[in-house]
From TrEMBL:
Record field: transmembrane: none
One of the protein's GO biological processes: xylan catabolic process
GO cellular component: extracellular region
Pathway this chain belongs to: Glycan degradation; xylan degradation
Sequence ranges assigned to domain CBM10 in this UniProt record: 249-289, 293-333
Source taxon at top rank: Eukaryota
Protein name: Endo-1,4-beta-xylanase
Catalytic activity: Endohydrolysis of (1->4)-beta-D-xylosidic linkages in xylans
Pfam families: CBM_10 (PF02013), Glyco_hydro_11 (PF00457)
Enzyme Commission code: 3.2.1.8
Lineage: Eukaryota, Fungi, Fungi incertae sedis, Chytridiomycota, Chytridiomycota incertae sedis
Domain GH11 residues, every copy: 15-212
Active-site residues, record numbering mapped to chain: 108, 199
Amino acid sequence: MGHEGQSKTTQGQNNQSVTGKIGSSGYHYEIWYQGGNNSMTYYDNGTFKASWGGTNDFLARVGLKYNEDKTHQQLGQIDAYFKWTKSGSAGGYNYIGIYGWTVDPLVEYYIVDDWYNKPGSYLGQKKGEFTVDGDTYEIFQNTRVNQPSIKGTSTFPQFFSVRRSARSCGHIDISAHFKKWESLGMKLGKMYEAKVLVEAGGGSGSFDVTYFKMTDGSSVPKTTTTTTTTVKKTTTIAPRPSTKTLPSSCSSKITAQGYKCCSDPNCVVYYTDADGTWGVENGQWCGCGSSANCSQKIIAQGYKCCADSNCTVYYTDADGTWGVENGEWCGCGSA
């Protein structure tokens, strides 16, 4: 994906939250800090960059903003997909992952998937652990007394899920953490936000989110339009399918970066770039799609490349050249 669309940079305001909408994306940004030289740059597709130096506490985040009138159960399933890089340092405490607040009751929460220094004893009391998105998370609860919050200086609990092994890309099932916390008696209120966050308690560093997507129960899936094309051939050709049936092989450009091919031959393509088509398994990015040489636009729709390098082209459109094998459409020709 990378950074796409118009970019805007804000230096925020010391000891005050600065927040707003990001174009027509449906996402919001927010920046807050105590001291230092800090900024964040956000893009129309929700990706963002942040940098800090000399701060006591710095938070930059992008994601879903709510009206404080619905619980997470009312909002439906909430998920995040991400890929980021980091550099520099972030002081004595730092968190990278999902962040937000609820009201009634007022709760600050973290799902920590990455860090500069792994969070330690300041997380509070350990409440339990559970496994999701390919790893085990330890769960903690802490109490903050007369500290800054979205409702001014307040006393409130903090909830934490901390992944045992750090990662910089993948999927976070946010709702799974909410449900687990509440099963442990950690009550959440009505949602203020759910966002991808970097927080630094000092140091000098930078953070760059190069792939970003968040969804909830209100997200509207894209519809699929089926086009029927008449082909002059004696064999019967199946209609071009609307569901993906992808092989478990994948682009060598993806595996060269250290990623694996998805094990599921029916993997879902989450995005496509110059390296190939990408899926997610166990919370990690993987190559999802054929490594054969035909149009990536055809592969991205869920079709295979023709196995025969001398395939016959039956149809050509903006996506590429199409052949037929075993009564099914396939990509026929150069990528």
